[in-house]
Amino acid sequence: MLPSSLKFAMIFLTxxxxxxxxxxxxxxGDELFYAPIYANGNINLEEFAPVDMxxxxxxxxxxxxxxxxxxxxxxx
Length: 76
Fold this sequence. Notes:
alpha+beta, four-stranded antiparallel β-sheet, 4 strands, about 20% helix
């Protein structure tokens, strides 16, 4: 069980099309974070940064789908 201050586990969704891994904020699950996947396939877990919704090259439905899939995985 997660501590009461953390409602969302650190669950990752890999997007090879975007070259990154996504996760949700652990506090409330309302903010999307990403970290790059390096050429060797490694991911630095300390490089997660919030997705800037005004700067991303995705439509709203694609972002919604990523967040929805992460929330569903968190419920399992």
